[in-house]
Amino acid sequence: MIDKTSIIFNMETADPDDVLTLCMLSHHPRVNLCGITITPGSIQQVALVSHVLKLLELDIPIASKNILHPKECVSEWHYKWLGKIPMDNALKGISADRLIGTAIANDIHTKIVSGAGLGCVAQYLDQQAAARQCARYPLEEIVVQGGFAGDSVVPPEHRLAKFAGKETCPTFNLNADRKAAQLVIDTNQIRCKRFVSKNVCHGVIYDQEMHERIKPFKDRNVGLAMMYAGMEHYLQNKSGKAFHDPLAACVAIDATICGWAEVALYTQKGEWGSRLIERNDESPDTFISIAVDRARFEQILVGLDIDE
Fold it and tell me: Does pTM surpass 0.90?
């Protein structure tokens, strides 16, 4: 019997990455997808995610950070791919802190994968603190797509040319809610924090060649088939897509996809960086990716065991 990882997916809909990640996670043989939090959580976003879950034949709780958010926050690509989204699917769901807390109560090893700003996670941490219910490390692990590993952290053989000489860089998901990001970075209420850095994820491109490699496996489950169909649509007009969030999701399933450095994250002038640190057994573990095994990533993406 395959051991499954319980995962909450924290997502947004400004680009295709997150919905494609949702498709992949939905029926992955090694994943129990137990909840979705949406940032910022507009009624249109909730309707979209609810519609996708219906297509995926999945019934799991949804939480919105702010269902009254005044902007739609859904990219046009989603409508071009999926067509008109029924607004009767715009269920308000439950609060983010309740969703996360319930999932952890059901499985103390639950992980969060974040492909969005960290406001929903911060809501949970704030609520725990307000209720004086903080136990040490109530959350097993968070995997965040975001952060940056510069030249002082990444060995020369793993550096991307586009980031040569850089120690800091803006990263979308951390800058989307800087206060929430800093809370997640600083808290001791998460045992392990993994940041899939810009330096690594920008080197993982889903192009036509990868599409052909994925094709033999696309019918393994409904989620993978839908992810493949989404990329089939995307590649009609684009040469490739940096697969940021699917990489982070696969890291939550198998962290050996990436090489890691233990670091302290910092921010300056709107940019993010990381410094190597020595292990401190009194602090939560914080790691940033410095390399990626592309073949292993694709194995996990399609749900293969390492020996298949």
Answer: yes
Mark residue 224 as left, alpha or beta (left: phi above 0; alpha: psi -120 to 50; beta: remaining).
alpha
Total of domains in the chain: 1
- Identify the domain containing residue 60 by its residue range: 5-301
Alpha helical stretches, state H, 159-293 = 172-175, 178-186, 198-201, 208-214, 222-234, 244-253
Does residue 236 sit within a domain? Answer: yes
pLDDT digits (tens, 9 = 90+) for 142-200: 999 999 999 999 999 999 999 999 999 999 999 999 999 999 999 988 999 999 999 88
CATH code where residue 248 lies:
3.90.245.10
CA distance 195 to 176: 15
In a domain, 306, yes or no: no
Residue 307 is assigned to a structural domain of this protein: no
Residues 6+ positions from 52 with CB-CB distance below 8 Å = 19, 22, 23, 82, 226
